[in-house]
Design goal:
This protein is α/β, with parallel strands linked by helices. It folds into 2 domains: 223 residues, Glucose-6-phosphate isomerase like protein, domain 1 (Rossmann fold, 3-Layer(aba) Sandwich), CATH 3.40.50; 155 residues, Rossmann fold (3-Layer(aba) Sandwich). The chain contains 14 helices and 12 strands. The strands form 3 sheets. It has a 5-stranded mixed sheet with strand order 1-12-11-7-10, with helices on both faces. The chain has a 5-stranded parallel sheet with strand order 3-2-4-5-6, with helices on both faces. Helix 6 links the parallel strand 5 and strand 6. Helix 1 crosses helix 9 and helix 2 crosses helix 7. The structure holds 5-phosphoarabinonic acid.
Amino acid sequence: MINKLYFPCSDEKPKQHAFEAIRKEQEYIGYYALPDQDTAAILQYCEKIPNDIENIVVIGIGGSSLGAKAVYEFIRPVKTLPRKLYFFESTDPVNLTALLADIILDKTHFLVISKSGTTIETFAIYKYIYSLHSNPDAYTFITDPGSPLEKYAQTIHAQILHLPENVGGRFSVLSPVGLLPLALCGIDIDSLLQGASNIKESFFNAGYMQETLLNKAVYYAKHHAQYHINCLFAYSESLKYFCEWYVQLWGESLGKHQRHSAFHVGLTPIGLIGPKDQHSFLQLIMEGTRDKSVTFIKIEDFNDSTVIPDISLPHLESLDALNGLPFETLINMQCDSVMEALLNEKDIPIDIISIPNTSEYNIGALIFYYELLTSLVGELIDVNTYDQPGVEAGKIILKEKLSAQKG
Ligand code: PA5
């Protein structure tokens, strides 16, 4: 994975400060250790799930579902997988009914995932599904040790797996929260971790990623008052859910009160997919307020030889230049052209991440790159990256409303 930044950063002091802070955080923030874990226990657990299980369903929301969904939707188009993975995340009844219509309950294993073990959406959906299919063997519960969910699961004698210590929801994709559903569907979780481990190694041991990530984080933090919107412009449909994961990670981690002042700060994530969003959001970036940075993501080799046929259409001869062109060349030329156009503006901070191909290794690398970048920026804009008091407040009010309507 290569990341080329088209903006300068020469401030050594904040880089040193951020690196030191993140190096120390490894002692008490759990996600940094995840790339180096042994996956034997998870792979053994997968063996326990009967072969006639065709579908895996994740019942969870936010950090309990978005990471696995990002990886699954990235790999699914290019790999034949032995099982389908579904995500039951929403209390939208039409969505719930439609998803249920797609699966046969007896051929499905359900993973109920909630770190806190009390999330309203997760339990509303679980209650409904359990009322239809009450065999405890069909469920595995993933939660924090001692949570109400763990206690409940014990009462029905169901299987329970734990999140490792100090791993927050949105940083948990490389823990059993993401690894178990992915492994059950035939995704190579060792390669996923290897990709993450490579970025970790490069960052902490003065490799290429150290300077790159520090330069980017310091630039974002230094200019956060002006460039407070960070667009991720990914040129592949398969990165759509990676963009959703990024929006959660960035938004929930970086929108806060500062730790040492009364100011509200935050960087606003936007996920865009090329070329589709060239025909919508791009206008706003190109000519709108200069408050946005853009990171392009490009896949160098789609491993797909589909070519635009050599057909000349009457009155459309000007488009004959497309003839014989592989689609993968076209999409990357589109990315390069938009990037060049934005660079010509001179006042829009741009960088590009190129990944060699669509593989578990490369999505693992992207995930860990973004987790490290989030931690660095959080430190530099002086917020607690790992809490989410703003999300909690709404949950508390909902619980009060639910109790009130019960009378
Ligand atoms: O990142 C977070 O902490 C949140 O987005 C949570 O993942 C989300 O609220 C779901 O919480 P839980 O896993 O406790 O059900």
